Amino acid sequence: MTTTSPLPTGPRQEQSLRILLWLVAVGFFMQTLDATIVNTALPAMASSLGESPLRMQSVVVAYSLTMAMLIPASGWMADRFGTRRVYVGAIVLFVIGSVLCALSPSLSGLVAARVVQGAGGALLLPVGRLVVLKTFPRERFLQAMSFVAIPGLIGPLIGPTLGGWLVEVVTWHWIFLINVPVGIVGALATLRYMPKPPVTTVARFDLAGYLLLAFGMVAISLALDGLSGLGLRQAAVLVLMIFGLASLTAYWLHALRRPDPLFSPQLFHVGSLRIGLLGNLFSRLGSSCMPFLIPLLLQVTMGYSPAQAGMMMLPVAIASMSVKRVTTPLITRHGYRRVLVVNTGLVGLAMASFVFAAPDQPLVLRILQLAVLGAVNSMQFTAMNTLTLKDLEPETASSGNSLLSMVQMLAMGMGVAAAGAVLAAFTEVFGSGEAQALPAFRATFGCMALITIASAGIFWQLAPQDSRAGPGRSGAEPGGEA
Protein backbone atom coordinates (compact mmCIF):
# COMPACT_ATOMS: atom_id res chain seq x y z
CA MET A 1 0.00 0.00 0.00
CA THR A 2 1.41 3.35 -0.93
CA THR A 3 0.91 6.56 0.99
CA THR A 4 -0.63 9.63 -0.50
CA SER A 5 1.49 12.64 -1.32
CA PRO A 6 2.73 14.52 1.77
CA LEU A 7 0.15 16.87 3.20
CA PRO A 8 0.72 20.59 3.70
CA THR A 9 2.33 21.33 7.03
CA GLY A 10 0.59 24.54 8.05
CA PRO A 11 -0.81 24.99 11.60
CA ARG A 12 -4.36 24.03 10.60
CA GLN A 13 -3.21 20.91 8.75
CA GLU A 14 -1.01 19.86 11.68
CA GLN A 15 -3.95 20.27 14.03
CA SER A 16 -6.09 18.09 11.76
CA LEU A 17 -3.38 15.44 11.73
CA ARG A 18 -3.18 15.45 15.54
CA ILE A 19 -6.94 15.10 15.82
CA LEU A 20 -6.86 12.26 13.30
CA LEU A 21 -4.29 10.43 15.43
CA TRP A 22 -6.45 10.90 18.49
CA LEU A 23 -9.44 9.48 16.60
CA VAL A 24 -7.55 6.33 15.67
CA ALA A 25 -6.05 6.07 19.17
CA VAL A 26 -9.48 6.35 20.83
CA GLY A 27 -10.85 3.68 18.50
CA PHE A 28 -7.97 1.37 19.43
CA PHE A 29 -8.57 2.15 23.11
CA MET A 30 -12.28 1.30 22.85
CA GLN A 31 -11.51 -2.00 21.18
CA THR A 32 -8.81 -3.12 23.66
CA LEU A 33 -10.73 -1.85 26.68
CA ASP A 34 -13.83 -3.83 25.78
CA ALA A 35 -11.79 -6.97 25.22
CA THR A 36 -10.77 -6.94 28.92
CA ILE A 37 -13.41 -4.95 30.83
CA VAL A 38 -15.97 -7.78 30.90
CA ASN A 39 -13.72 -10.32 32.63
CA THR A 40 -14.23 -9.06 36.18
CA ALA A 41 -17.95 -8.48 35.56
CA LEU A 42 -18.76 -12.05 34.44
CA PRO A 43 -19.96 -13.29 37.87
CA ALA A 44 -22.25 -10.26 38.25
CA MET A 45 -23.58 -10.80 34.73
CA ALA A 46 -24.18 -14.47 35.50
CA SER A 47 -26.11 -13.63 38.66
CA SER A 48 -28.23 -11.06 36.83
CA LEU A 49 -28.99 -13.42 33.92
CA GLY A 50 -29.58 -16.50 36.07
CA GLU A 51 -26.52 -18.36 34.79
CA SER A 52 -23.53 -20.06 36.41
CA PRO A 53 -20.40 -17.85 36.42
CA LEU A 54 -18.44 -20.90 35.25
CA ARG A 55 -20.42 -20.98 31.98
CA MET A 56 -19.96 -17.38 30.88
CA GLN A 57 -17.00 -17.88 28.54
CA SER A 58 -19.26 -17.48 25.50
CA VAL A 59 -19.43 -13.74 26.22
CA VAL A 60 -15.65 -13.51 25.67
CA VAL A 61 -15.46 -16.09 22.86
CA ALA A 62 -18.16 -14.38 20.76
CA TYR A 63 -16.26 -11.07 20.76
CA SER A 64 -12.85 -12.57 19.92
CA LEU A 65 -14.19 -14.94 17.28
CA THR A 66 -16.15 -12.23 15.49
CA MET A 67 -13.04 -10.08 15.34
CA ALA A 68 -11.03 -12.98 13.94
CA MET A 69 -13.68 -13.54 11.24
CA LEU A 70 -13.81 -9.93 10.02
CA ILE A 71 -10.11 -9.01 10.10
CA PRO A 72 -9.39 -10.73 6.72
CA ALA A 73 -12.09 -8.61 5.05
CA SER A 74 -11.21 -5.28 6.73
CA GLY A 75 -8.64 -4.11 4.17
CA TRP A 76 -10.85 -4.89 1.17
CA MET A 77 -13.85 -3.18 2.79
CA ALA A 78 -11.80 -0.04 3.48
CA ASP A 79 -10.60 0.08 -0.14
CA ARG A 80 -14.05 -0.67 -1.56
CA PHE A 81 -16.19 1.67 0.53
CA GLY A 82 -13.62 4.22 1.73
CA THR A 83 -11.72 4.34 5.01
CA ARG A 84 -13.76 7.19 6.48
CA ARG A 85 -17.11 5.54 5.72
CA VAL A 86 -15.98 2.17 7.07
CA TYR A 87 -14.44 3.72 10.21
CA VAL A 88 -17.63 5.64 11.01
CA GLY A 89 -19.64 2.50 10.33
CA ALA A 90 -17.37 0.53 12.68
CA ILE A 91 -17.90 3.05 15.48
CA VAL A 92 -21.69 3.07 14.95
CA LEU A 93 -21.79 -0.73 14.90
CA PHE A 94 -19.68 -0.86 18.05
CA VAL A 95 -22.02 1.56 19.85
CA ILE A 96 -25.14 -0.32 18.70
CA GLY A 97 -23.60 -3.57 19.93
CA SER A 98 -22.74 -1.94 23.27
CA VAL A 99 -26.34 -0.77 23.76
CA LEU A 100 -27.67 -4.21 22.83
CA CYS A 101 -25.28 -5.79 25.36
CA ALA A 102 -26.61 -3.52 28.11
CA LEU A 103 -30.22 -4.33 27.19
CA SER A 104 -29.72 -8.10 26.87
CA PRO A 105 -32.25 -10.07 28.97
CA SER A 106 -30.48 -13.43 28.65
CA LEU A 107 -27.08 -15.00 28.03
CA SER A 108 -27.95 -15.90 24.45
CA GLY A 109 -29.02 -12.30 23.80
CA LEU A 110 -25.80 -11.02 25.35
CA VAL A 111 -23.70 -13.33 23.19
CA ALA A 112 -25.54 -12.16 20.05
CA ALA A 113 -24.98 -8.54 21.06
CA ARG A 114 -21.27 -9.23 21.60
CA VAL A 115 -21.12 -10.48 18.02
CA VAL A 116 -22.45 -7.12 16.83
CA GLN A 117 -20.01 -5.28 19.07
CA GLY A 118 -17.11 -7.46 17.92
CA ALA A 119 -17.99 -6.73 14.28
CA GLY A 120 -17.46 -3.03 14.94
CA GLY A 121 -14.35 -3.59 17.04
CA ALA A 122 -12.78 -5.79 14.37
CA LEU A 123 -12.68 -2.88 11.93
CA LEU A 124 -11.50 -0.13 14.29
CA LEU A 125 -7.81 -1.02 14.53
CA PRO A 126 -6.97 -2.30 11.01
CA VAL A 127 -8.92 0.45 9.25
CA GLY A 128 -7.52 3.08 11.62
CA ARG A 129 -3.99 1.85 10.94
CA LEU A 130 -4.71 2.02 7.21
CA VAL A 131 -5.92 5.65 7.55
CA VAL A 132 -2.66 6.60 9.26
CA LEU A 133 -0.65 4.78 6.59
CA LYS A 134 -2.44 6.62 3.77
CA THR A 135 -2.43 10.05 5.43
CA PHE A 136 1.01 10.42 7.00
CA PRO A 137 4.26 10.68 5.01
CA ARG A 138 6.51 7.66 5.27
CA GLU A 139 9.04 9.44 7.48
CA ARG A 140 6.35 10.19 10.08
CA PHE A 141 4.52 6.87 9.96
CA LEU A 142 6.46 5.10 12.74
CA GLN A 143 6.06 8.06 15.09
CA ALA A 144 2.34 8.24 14.35
CA MET A 145 1.81 4.50 14.92
CA SER A 146 3.78 4.65 18.18
CA PHE A 147 1.33 7.27 19.42
CA VAL A 148 -1.67 5.19 18.34
CA ALA A 149 -0.27 2.08 20.07
CA ILE A 150 -0.17 3.68 23.55
CA PRO A 151 -3.94 3.33 24.20
CA GLY A 152 -3.63 -0.33 23.24
CA LEU A 153 -1.50 -0.77 26.37
CA ILE A 154 -3.65 1.47 28.58
CA GLY A 155 -6.92 -0.34 27.72
CA PRO A 156 -5.91 -3.70 29.24
CA LEU A 157 -4.30 -1.83 32.15
CA ILE A 158 -7.51 -0.18 33.35
CA GLY A 159 -10.11 -2.52 31.82
CA PRO A 160 -10.43 -5.14 34.61
CA THR A 161 -10.27 -2.51 37.37
CA LEU A 162 -12.81 -0.23 35.68
CA GLY A 163 -15.13 -3.17 35.02
CA GLY A 164 -15.04 -4.28 38.66
CA TRP A 165 -15.58 -0.72 39.91
CA LEU A 166 -18.58 -0.13 37.63
CA VAL A 167 -20.20 -3.39 38.74
CA GLU A 168 -20.00 -2.32 42.38
CA VAL A 169 -20.85 1.37 42.03
CA VAL A 170 -23.68 1.03 39.48
CA THR A 171 -24.42 -2.20 37.53
CA TRP A 172 -22.64 -4.36 34.97
CA HIS A 173 -24.70 -2.74 32.22
CA TRP A 174 -22.54 0.40 32.45
CA ILE A 175 -19.41 -1.37 31.25
CA PHE A 176 -21.13 -1.25 27.86
CA LEU A 177 -23.05 2.01 28.16
CA ILE A 178 -19.88 4.05 28.73
CA ASN A 179 -19.04 3.36 25.08
CA VAL A 180 -22.08 5.33 23.87
CA PRO A 181 -20.95 8.95 24.48
CA VAL A 182 -17.38 8.14 23.40
CA GLY A 183 -18.67 6.52 20.22
CA ILE A 184 -21.00 9.40 19.34
CA VAL A 185 -18.23 11.97 19.74
CA GLY A 186 -15.83 9.73 17.79
CA ALA A 187 -18.24 9.27 14.87
CA LEU A 188 -18.93 13.01 14.61
CA ALA A 189 -15.23 13.86 14.84
CA THR A 190 -14.42 11.25 12.18
CA LEU A 191 -16.87 12.85 9.76
CA ARG A 192 -15.31 16.23 10.50
CA TYR A 193 -11.58 15.49 10.53
CA MET A 194 -10.87 12.22 8.70
CA PRO A 195 -9.96 12.94 5.05
CA LYS A 196 -11.84 11.32 2.20
CA PRO A 197 -9.68 8.71 0.49
CA PRO A 198 -8.99 8.97 -3.24
CA VAL A 199 -10.91 6.66 -5.54
CA THR A 200 -8.94 3.45 -6.12
CA THR A 201 -9.41 0.33 -8.18
CA VAL A 202 -10.39 -2.55 -5.93
CA ALA A 203 -9.58 -6.15 -6.75
CA ARG A 204 -12.35 -8.70 -6.67
CA PHE A 205 -12.92 -10.05 -3.17
CA ASP A 206 -12.24 -13.75 -2.66
CA LEU A 207 -15.70 -14.46 -1.26
CA ALA A 208 -15.49 -18.24 -1.61
CA GLY A 209 -12.17 -18.35 0.22
CA TYR A 210 -13.44 -16.00 2.92
CA LEU A 211 -16.54 -18.12 3.56
CA LEU A 212 -14.48 -21.30 3.80
CA LEU A 213 -12.02 -19.68 6.20
CA ALA A 214 -14.71 -18.03 8.34
CA PHE A 215 -16.84 -21.17 8.57
CA GLY A 216 -13.80 -23.23 9.57
CA MET A 217 -12.89 -20.82 12.38
CA VAL A 218 -16.46 -20.60 13.66
CA ALA A 219 -17.08 -24.35 13.55
CA ILE A 220 -13.94 -25.26 15.46
CA SER A 221 -14.49 -22.53 18.06
CA LEU A 222 -18.13 -23.52 18.55
CA ALA A 223 -17.07 -27.13 18.91
CA LEU A 224 -14.75 -26.19 21.77
CA ASP A 225 -17.31 -23.89 23.35
CA GLY A 226 -20.03 -26.48 22.86
CA LEU A 227 -18.26 -28.82 25.27
CA SER A 228 -19.29 -26.48 28.07
CA GLY A 229 -21.06 -23.26 27.20
CA LEU A 230 -23.58 -24.33 24.56
CA GLY A 231 -24.55 -27.66 26.06
CA LEU A 232 -24.00 -29.54 22.80
CA ARG A 233 -23.73 -33.29 22.94
CA GLN A 234 -20.52 -35.04 22.00
CA ALA A 235 -21.81 -36.10 18.58
CA ALA A 236 -22.67 -32.51 17.62
CA VAL A 237 -19.28 -31.32 18.84
CA LEU A 238 -17.53 -34.00 16.78
CA VAL A 239 -19.51 -33.10 13.64
CA LEU A 240 -18.72 -29.40 14.09
CA MET A 241 -15.04 -30.12 14.58
CA ILE A 242 -14.87 -32.30 11.44
CA PHE A 243 -16.75 -29.72 9.37
CA GLY A 244 -14.42 -26.98 10.63
CA LEU A 245 -11.25 -28.90 9.78
CA ALA A 246 -12.68 -29.85 6.36
CA SER A 247 -13.52 -26.21 5.65
CA LEU A 248 -10.01 -25.03 6.55
CA THR A 249 -8.52 -27.77 4.37
CA ALA A 250 -10.80 -26.72 1.51
CA TYR A 251 -9.64 -23.11 1.94
CA TRP A 252 -5.99 -24.19 1.70
CA LEU A 253 -6.64 -26.10 -1.53
CA HIS A 254 -8.67 -23.15 -2.85
CA ALA A 255 -5.84 -20.72 -2.07
CA LEU A 256 -3.30 -22.93 -3.86
CA ARG A 257 -5.10 -22.60 -7.19
CA ARG A 258 -6.35 -18.98 -6.93
CA PRO A 259 -4.01 -16.21 -8.14
CA ASP A 260 -5.20 -13.68 -5.50
CA PRO A 261 -6.32 -15.52 -2.36
CA LEU A 262 -6.97 -13.79 0.98
CA PHE A 263 -3.76 -15.28 2.37
CA SER A 264 -1.36 -16.77 -0.11
CA PRO A 265 0.18 -20.15 0.77
CA GLN A 266 3.45 -18.58 -0.44
CA LEU A 267 3.60 -16.75 2.89
CA PHE A 268 4.35 -20.04 4.60
CA HIS A 269 7.57 -20.39 2.61
CA VAL A 270 9.00 -17.85 5.10
CA GLY A 271 10.29 -19.99 7.96
CA SER A 272 10.03 -17.34 10.67
CA LEU A 273 6.41 -16.55 9.75
CA ARG A 274 5.47 -20.23 9.63
CA ILE A 275 6.91 -20.95 13.09
CA GLY A 276 5.68 -17.64 14.48
CA LEU A 277 2.06 -18.21 13.42
CA LEU A 278 1.91 -21.79 14.68
CA GLY A 279 3.62 -20.77 17.91
CA ASN A 280 1.21 -17.87 18.35
CA LEU A 281 -1.76 -20.16 17.86
CA PHE A 282 -0.80 -22.94 20.27
CA SER A 283 0.95 -20.78 22.86
CA ARG A 284 -2.06 -18.46 23.12
CA LEU A 285 -4.43 -21.44 23.28
CA GLY A 286 -3.03 -21.95 26.75
CA SER A 287 -2.09 -18.51 28.02
CA SER A 288 -5.02 -16.44 26.68
CA CYS A 289 -7.39 -18.03 29.18
CA MET A 290 -5.68 -16.38 32.16
CA PRO A 291 -7.48 -12.98 32.03
CA PHE A 292 -10.72 -14.98 31.96
CA LEU A 293 -9.89 -17.55 34.67
CA ILE A 294 -8.12 -15.38 37.27
CA PRO A 295 -10.98 -12.94 38.02
CA LEU A 296 -13.37 -15.90 38.18
CA LEU A 297 -11.06 -17.75 40.57
CA LEU A 298 -10.76 -14.73 42.87
CA GLN A 299 -14.50 -14.03 43.00
CA VAL A 300 -15.97 -17.54 42.94
CA THR A 301 -13.56 -19.30 45.32
CA MET A 302 -11.88 -16.60 47.42
CA GLY A 303 -14.61 -14.08 48.12
CA TYR A 304 -13.12 -11.12 46.25
CA SER A 305 -15.47 -8.34 45.19
CA PRO A 306 -15.48 -7.35 41.50
CA ALA A 307 -13.47 -4.20 42.27
CA GLN A 308 -10.92 -6.15 44.31
CA ALA A 309 -10.56 -8.76 41.57
CA GLY A 310 -10.05 -5.98 39.03
CA MET A 311 -7.37 -4.36 41.18
CA MET A 312 -5.55 -7.69 41.40
CA MET A 313 -5.07 -7.61 37.64
CA LEU A 314 -3.05 -4.39 37.84
CA PRO A 315 0.25 -6.18 38.66
CA VAL A 316 -0.16 -8.18 35.43
CA ALA A 317 -0.55 -5.06 33.29
CA ILE A 318 2.14 -3.02 35.07
CA ALA A 319 4.71 -5.82 34.83
CA SER A 320 3.74 -6.32 31.19
CA MET A 321 4.63 -2.73 30.36
CA SER A 322 7.77 -2.73 32.52
CA VAL A 323 9.60 -5.53 30.68
CA LYS A 324 9.20 -4.01 27.20
CA ARG A 325 12.67 -2.45 27.26
CA VAL A 326 14.53 -5.64 28.19
CA THR A 327 12.89 -7.90 25.62
CA THR A 328 14.68 -6.59 22.52
CA PRO A 329 18.20 -6.76 24.06
CA LEU A 330 17.50 -10.33 25.19
CA ILE A 331 16.42 -11.38 21.71
CA THR A 332 19.39 -9.60 20.13
CA ARG A 333 21.81 -11.40 22.44
CA HIS A 334 20.31 -14.90 22.56
CA GLY A 335 18.16 -15.15 19.41
CA TYR A 336 14.49 -15.92 19.01
CA ARG A 337 14.80 -19.68 19.37
CA ARG A 338 16.42 -19.69 22.80
CA VAL A 339 14.33 -16.83 24.16
CA LEU A 340 11.02 -18.30 23.01
CA VAL A 341 11.74 -21.87 24.08
CA VAL A 342 12.82 -20.78 27.57
CA ASN A 343 10.17 -18.10 27.97
CA THR A 344 7.34 -20.38 26.80
CA GLY A 345 8.36 -22.76 29.55
CA LEU A 346 8.36 -19.89 32.05
CA VAL A 347 4.87 -18.81 30.95
CA GLY A 348 3.65 -22.36 31.49
CA LEU A 349 5.27 -22.55 34.93
CA ALA A 350 3.77 -19.19 35.90
CA MET A 351 0.35 -20.52 34.89
CA ALA A 352 0.98 -23.79 36.73
CA SER A 353 1.73 -21.86 39.94
CA PHE A 354 -2.00 -21.16 40.22
CA VAL A 355 -2.45 -24.86 40.95
CA PHE A 356 -1.40 -23.89 44.50
CA ALA A 357 -3.84 -20.99 44.78
CA ALA A 358 -5.59 -20.89 48.14
CA PRO A 359 -7.72 -18.38 50.10
CA ASP A 360 -5.06 -18.09 52.83
CA GLN A 361 -2.25 -17.35 50.35
CA PRO A 362 -0.34 -14.21 51.44
CA LEU A 363 -1.33 -11.13 49.43
CA VAL A 364 2.28 -10.22 48.68
CA LEU A 365 2.90 -13.67 47.20
CA ARG A 366 -0.23 -13.44 45.06
CA ILE A 367 0.78 -10.02 43.71
CA LEU A 368 4.27 -11.34 42.91
CA GLN A 369 2.72 -14.36 41.19
CA LEU A 370 0.55 -12.12 38.99
CA ALA A 371 3.44 -9.76 38.20
CA VAL A 372 5.66 -12.65 37.06
CA LEU A 373 2.83 -13.91 34.84
CA GLY A 374 2.44 -10.45 33.29
CA ALA A 375 6.17 -10.07 32.67
CA VAL A 376 6.76 -13.40 30.94
CA ASN A 377 3.50 -13.10 28.98
CA SER A 378 4.51 -9.68 27.67
CA MET A 379 7.93 -10.96 26.64
CA GLN A 380 6.25 -13.89 24.90
CA PHE A 381 3.89 -11.69 22.87
CA THR A 382 6.64 -9.30 21.81
CA ALA A 383 9.00 -12.09 20.74
CA MET A 384 6.33 -14.09 18.90
CA ASN A 385 4.95 -11.11 17.01
CA THR A 386 8.28 -9.71 15.88
CA LEU A 387 9.48 -13.19 14.87
CA THR A 388 6.38 -13.65 12.71
CA LEU A 389 6.77 -10.39 10.77
CA LYS A 390 10.51 -9.72 10.70
CA ASP A 391 11.38 -11.48 7.43
CA LEU A 392 8.40 -10.46 5.30
CA GLU A 393 8.99 -8.46 2.15
CA PRO A 394 7.16 -5.12 1.78
CA GLU A 395 4.69 -6.54 -0.74
CA THR A 396 3.63 -9.32 1.67
CA ALA A 397 3.84 -7.37 4.94
CA SER A 398 0.19 -6.25 4.94
CA SER A 399 -1.14 -9.75 4.24
CA GLY A 400 1.17 -11.29 6.84
CA ASN A 401 0.18 -8.74 9.46
CA SER A 402 -3.54 -9.38 8.83
CA LEU A 403 -2.97 -13.12 9.06
CA LEU A 404 -1.14 -12.66 12.36
CA SER A 405 -3.97 -10.50 13.76
CA MET A 406 -6.54 -13.11 12.72
CA VAL A 407 -4.57 -15.96 14.31
CA GLN A 408 -4.16 -13.97 17.53
CA MET A 409 -7.88 -13.27 17.92
CA LEU A 410 -8.79 -16.82 16.92
CA ALA A 411 -6.38 -18.27 19.49
CA MET A 412 -7.72 -15.96 22.20
CA GLY A 413 -11.29 -17.07 21.56
CA MET A 414 -10.38 -20.74 21.27
CA GLY A 415 -8.23 -20.53 24.41
CA VAL A 416 -11.10 -19.19 26.50
CA ALA A 417 -13.47 -21.76 24.98
CA ALA A 418 -11.02 -24.58 25.73
CA ALA A 419 -10.50 -23.37 29.30
CA GLY A 420 -14.28 -23.19 29.79
CA ALA A 421 -14.64 -26.75 28.50
CA VAL A 422 -11.86 -28.05 30.78
CA LEU A 423 -13.31 -26.19 33.77
CA ALA A 424 -16.76 -27.62 33.08
CA ALA A 425 -15.32 -31.15 32.86
CA PHE A 426 -13.48 -30.83 36.16
CA THR A 427 -16.56 -29.27 37.77
CA GLU A 428 -18.42 -32.47 36.95
CA VAL A 429 -15.55 -34.52 38.43
CA PHE A 430 -15.19 -32.59 41.68
CA GLY A 431 -18.80 -31.43 42.06
CA SER A 432 -20.61 -28.18 41.40
CA GLY A 433 -20.66 -26.83 44.96
CA GLU A 434 -18.72 -23.76 46.04
CA ALA A 435 -16.30 -25.87 48.09
CA GLN A 436 -15.48 -28.02 45.06
CA ALA A 437 -14.86 -25.06 42.72
CA LEU A 438 -11.28 -24.47 43.87
CA PRO A 439 -10.02 -27.98 42.95
CA ALA A 440 -11.70 -27.63 39.55
CA PHE A 441 -9.93 -24.31 38.96
CA ARG A 442 -6.58 -25.76 40.08
CA ALA A 443 -6.88 -28.70 37.68
CA THR A 444 -7.86 -26.34 34.85
CA PHE A 445 -4.82 -24.13 35.42
CA GLY A 446 -2.61 -27.22 35.34
CA CYS A 447 -4.05 -28.47 32.05
CA MET A 448 -3.83 -25.10 30.31
CA ALA A 449 -0.25 -24.71 31.56
CA LEU A 450 0.68 -28.05 29.98
CA ILE A 451 -0.74 -26.88 26.63
CA THR A 452 1.45 -23.77 26.81
CA ILE A 453 4.59 -25.69 27.76
CA ALA A 454 4.00 -28.14 24.89
CA SER A 455 4.01 -25.24 22.41
CA ALA A 456 7.70 -24.65 23.21
CA GLY A 457 8.40 -27.58 20.87
CA ILE A 458 7.18 -25.45 17.96
CA PHE A 459 9.73 -22.70 18.65
CA TRP A 460 12.43 -25.38 19.03
CA GLN A 461 12.04 -26.00 15.27
CA LEU A 462 13.34 -22.54 14.35
CA ALA A 463 16.26 -22.71 11.92
CA PRO A 464 19.42 -20.80 12.90
CA GLN A 465 18.96 -18.23 10.14
CA ASP A 466 15.35 -17.59 11.24
CA SER A 467 16.31 -17.31 14.90
CA ARG A 468 18.70 -14.39 14.43
CA ALA A 469 17.40 -11.02 15.54
CA GLY A 470 17.39 -8.35 12.86
CA PRO A 471 15.68 -5.15 11.88
CA GLY A 472 13.09 -6.99 9.80
CA ARG A 473 11.99 -5.97 6.35
CA SER A 474 8.25 -5.68 6.84
CA GLY A 475 8.18 -2.24 8.38
CA ALA A 476 5.69 -3.54 10.94
CA GLU A 477 5.84 -2.16 14.41
CA PRO A 478 7.10 -4.82 16.83
CA GLY A 479 5.82 -5.65 20.20
CA GLY A 480 2.07 -5.53 19.79
CA GLU A 481 0.08 -7.25 22.53
CA ALA A 482 -3.07 -7.97 20.62
TrEMBL record:
InterPro entries assigned: EmrB-like (IPR004638), MFS (IPR011701), MFS_dom (IPR020846), MFS_trans_sf (IPR036259)
Transmembrane stretches, start-end: 20-42, 54-74, 86-105, 111-132, 144-166, 172-193, 205-224, 236-256, 277-298, 304-323, 335-357, 403-427, 439-463
Record-linked SUPFAM superfamilies: MFS general substrate transporter
The keyword Transmembrane helix is assigned to this record: yes
Domain Major facilitator superfamily (MFS) profile residue range list: 20-467
Compartment annotation: Cell membrane
Membrane topology designation: Multi-pass membrane protein
Main location: membrane
Annotated keywords: Cell membrane, Membrane, Transmembrane, Transmembrane helix, Transport
Pfam family, any one: MFS_1
Name of this chain's protein: Multidrug transporter subunit MdtD
Organism of provenance: Pelomonas candidula
Lineage: Bacteria, Pseudomonadati, Pseudomonadota, Betaproteobacteria, Burkholderiales
